[in-house]
Amino acid sequence: MSLNLRIPGPMPLPPDVLEATGRPMINHRGPEFAEIINRMTRNMKTLLETSGDVYFMTSSGTGAMETAIVNVLSPGDAVLSVSIGVFGDRFGDIAETYGAEVTRLKTELGEAAEPKAVSEALSGIPDCKAVLLTHNDTSTAVQNDIAALSEVIRSESKALILVDAVSSAGGSPLAVDAWGLDMVATASQKAWMAGPGIGIIAVSKRAWAAHETSTMPKFYFDIAQYQKFLDIGQPPFTPALSTIYGLDLALQQLADEGIENVISRHAERAEQTRRGVQRIGLELFCDVSVASDTVTAIKVPDGVDAKAVVARMRDEYEVEISGGQGPLAGKIWRIGHMGWCEPEHIDDCIDVLEKVLAELK
Ligand code: PMP
Fold first, then answer.
1. Which member of 9, 223, 236, 349 has the lowest number of beta carbons within 10 Å of its beta carbon?
2. Tell me: the pLDDT tens digits for 317-337?
3. 187 lines ligand 1 (CB under 6 A)
4. Ligand 1 centre from 286 Cα, in Å?
5. Ligand 1 neighbour 164 (Cβ under 6 A)
6. 350 and 306 share a domain?
7. Structural domain count of the chain
8. How far apart are CA 57 and CA 38, in angstroms?
9. CATH number of 272's domain
10. Ligand 1 neighbour 87 (Cβ under 6 A)
11. Boundary (domain end) residue, out of 227, 256, 285
């Protein structure tokens, strides 16, 4: 087996998607590209369960998060940033960088955000313009209940709901319209079975209304440019065509599979991973009730050198997992199981982890 890449993104590509990325370049202002972008847009709307707008930017996921912020906010706007980890902190940082007045609500690492705590924080912020949420914080492998959080935010305020769904969309339930989400950011290299390079943003009607009065600086990420060009089947700027070829094929396959099946496949793989981890005597980092469908975090046992395990798995057995980020470095390992992930990928990963732990004892 070639490298079993089990970090939480980028993920391995199915062979046919990988092959598609090697296709010759085309004119991104020609009819063939128009067909591709229109098909991708249609499929992505179906998969995100939205009749709103969806745009593809050549950027990573962080670019999509920045798109969410700069298109609906103005400097001085009050924003509530709900963070359950590294990526939640980043969302707040982007808003602050562009001049928003950010109030931060942070949970203990390993916990999800409580609707009650969000409601209390909101009541202390008059004229809160937006709430920033992370669906799945890849740094802790904790998944927020976005439907429940959205419900309290919508019932108690007029705040827009901006969601970082970079590592959840296409793997976990995410009903953009039914849940009343305004800007939802995701990225090609996570559950979408494609390579890195394309940021994706879903935009609601309320977000478009906010765009009219938003004064944060924007040029490359201005959604008005993306809409204007989509109308003529083009991107505003030269896109990462190779990634787009792969993403187009992957989205078609996911749409054919059906979003319910895609989601239950992810839930099965997550369950398989958690069971495997526990079978070899390791402990999960967070409670199963908030555990992610796309990545699993494992506690590093006392006395074990987390980095040495990762290195030996990679160098001796061609299985690569991730360590922890920031304060969780050395304390957890993370296994990615989003996108193209077969049951044998997980079995191989758990077997190798068990073997290496025994060897390093
Ligand atoms: N948010 C989440 C939840 C992520 O997992 C990541 C990537 N790990 C990002 C944002 C940032 O995405 P990118 O590295 O593509 O900019």
1. 236
2. 999 999 999 999 999 999 999
3. yes
4. 20
5. yes
6. yes
7. 2
8. 14
9. 3.90.1150.10
10. yes
11. 256
